Known about the structure:
By secondary structure, the protein is of the alpha+beta class. The chain folds into two domains: 5-130, Jelly Rolls; 133-219, Arc Repressor Mutant, subunit A (Orthogonal Bundle), CATH 1.10.10. It is 43% helix and 27% strand. The chain has nine helices and twelve strands. The protein has helices at 5-14, 17-21, 95-104, 109-132, 135-147, 165-172, 176-188, 205-212, 216-219, and strands at 24-28, 33-35, 43-49, 52-57, 62-68, 73-75, 81-84, 88-94, 151-153, 156-160, 192-196, 199-202. The strands form three sheets. A four-stranded antiparallel beta sheet has the order 1-8-3-6. Helix 5 (135-147) packs across helix 8 (205-212). It comes from Uliginosibacterium paludis.
Amino acid sequence: xxxxxxxAHRLAAAMPEPLLARxxxxxxxxxxxxxxxxxxxxxxxxxxEGRIRVFVANEDKELTLAYLVPGxxxxxxxxxxxxxxxxxxxxxxxxxxxxxxxxxxxxxLGLIMPVLGRILDHxxxxxxxxAFRDVAGRLARFLLVAARQGSRVPQGVQVTxxxxxxxxxxxxxxxRQTVSSLLKRMEREGLISRPARHQLVILQPEVxxxxxxxxxxxxx
Length: 220
């Protein structure tokens, strides 16, 4: 799943060509560290292709805040690291120049704010997860959020997940093994089915909501 990509796609489609032309373009390999905390110079980045992981880290641990999808903007003026998870095409512009450009394109602000707000929303949800939910509860919440973008099928709600178990684990502050084990348990207990790669059907959302509130361990 790419969380709420529609706003990003609208932003990319609405970006005026003269403004796009002022961005510098780069093609970067998977694993490339795009930006680190207190990076200079301060830039606005727009992802055109690929996927970028936004995370915070210290000497012992990394915590993923979000994955940027094509069309999304981010600033290097944060305390986060940005790394290409896949080969990327990236546009960049000095922040001051971008701010001046926005003054000439007032309609763009309404498209930019939802994209930037998604990162903040996920960061707040991650803090709540780490403070109040075990890994099973975090995974249940993740799937319930994904279901909002899913499509109804006779068995339930079908969701496309283009994140691997390892990438989901990074978003949840867990290990890949734990997430894989929990997904298998959900499938075994009839909460979900996985009819194809990158496809998941949520069969019992009411049970996932109970897991979200901490009942998974009690039922184990």
